[in-house]
Amino acid sequence: MKILIVGGGMGGTILANNLARRLQGEVKAGKARITMLSASDRHMYQPGLLYVAVGSMAPDELYRDQRSLLEPCINFHVDPVTEFMLDANQVKTQSGRVFDYDVLVIATGSRMAPETIPGLAENAETFYTEETAVKMLKTLREFKGGKVVITVGVPHKCPMAPLEITFMLNDYFKDRGIRDKVQLHYTYPIGRVHSLENVAKWAAPEFERLGITYETFFNMKEVDGATKTLKSEEGSEVKYDLLIAIPAHRGQEVVEKSGLGQNGWIPTNRTSLNMEGRNNVFVLGDTTNIPISKAGSTAHFEAETLGDNIAALVKLGIPVREYDGKVFCFIEAGKDRATYAMFDYNTPPDPKAPSKALHWFKLAYNKLYWTSARGLL
């Protein structure tokens, strides 16, 4: 059986390693072949970009060689897919090669799309790429005071990022001794400060305690860079001296161009993780249209489910389990404090009081990530 994994991020890497260990005998006997196609020879620890943006992590700490994270029996190619030909069970790559498959897993991730809001890309700082995170740090270093607006579009990668960057900015300006010269103002598209109700109930009092103002029902419409004004679809306007944006995200361009899903999100069965209408195509991580958090832990737990099921398809001819919507997200809550949100399809999150212990556990996970990517944690 030819298993083809498109995408070398968290989900694709964990899945490939999981399958390589589960199907070790079948691979040796020539009954199974695992191939990964990636757009890069480097693997980035994406949650670290938040820390780069405030100067607490260097960019080179974010990367490992992708090949070094994979089991030796995995056929790895830096050759991004340019076309999905699902009816023929094939994909075409940038080099012009065509790869056949019996089972396809699409784990291409997502990308921020600030260009969908006029003026946003030109006037706001973001932290979802190395380049923009470094630029944001340089801007923060030069900032002397004024109104900092943190504005949020949906959907976006990492559900806790808007809250985390707000708390981290509060600390950043305190450490620089200018917090009293900075007004932090946060906007969110729906009627509370976070999409998860219990997280919002926890976060709003934290904002109030720290003197962070917020406006809900604020959907970005455009940014006027000349007057430094952010305008909403609802008709309100907010002035800023520094604009920090969590832009809405889309799926990767190749998914959009192949017509696999609206805005690059592939219609996916929420328990089997099959692409709707395709028994031998699975979708993993950010690429799905499942209405749950686009987070590394989502990809991790989905990859574990798919690892069990694809291995069972090879060995037994049937899947053996269902994905239950499990997600676990740390939340940086201020200086040396963190909490977490854990939830699934049936159980909502219930964040506890932040603590130093959870903060140190979060920092430890920044190092343990590489063990997790290898599928060993």
What does this molecule look like?
The chain is α/β, with parallel strands linked by helices. It has 2 domains: 2-109 and 252-324, 3-Layer(bba) Sandwich (FAD/NAD(P)-binding domain); 114-249, FAD/NAD(P)-binding domain (3-Layer(bba) Sandwich). It is 31% helix and 24% strand. It has a 5-stranded parallel sheet with strand order 5-2-1-9-19, with helices on one face. It is globular and about 65 Å long. The two termini are 27 Å apart. The model has no long low-confidence stretch (mean pLDDT 95).
Beginning-to-end CA distance, first to last residue:
27 Å
How many structural domains does the protein architecture include?
Answer: 2
Label the structural class.
alpha/beta
- Main sheet properties: 5 strands, parallel
Features:
377 residues, alpha/beta, FAD/NAD(P)-binding domain, 2 domains, five-stranded parallel beta sheet, four-stranded parallel beta sheet, 11 helices, globular
Please give a quick description of this structure.
Helix content is about 30%, strand content about 25%.
Secondary-structure map with pairings?
Blueprint: E1 2-6, H1 10-22, H2 24-28, E2 33-38, E3 42-44, H3 49-53, E4 63-65, H4 66-69, E5 75-78, E6 81-85, E7 90-93, E8 98-100, E9 103-106, E10 110-112, H5 120-123, H6 130-142, E11 146-152, H7 161-175, E12 182-187, H8 197-210, E13 213-215, E14 220-224, E15 229-232, E16 237-239, E17 242-246, E18 249-251, H9 253-257, E19 281-283, H10 296-315, E20 327-332, E21 338-343, H11 356-373
Parallel strand pairs: 1-2, 1-9, 2-5, 9-19, 11-12, 11-17, 12-13
Antiparallel strand pairs: 3-4, 6-7, 7-8, 10-18, 14-15, 15-16, 20-21
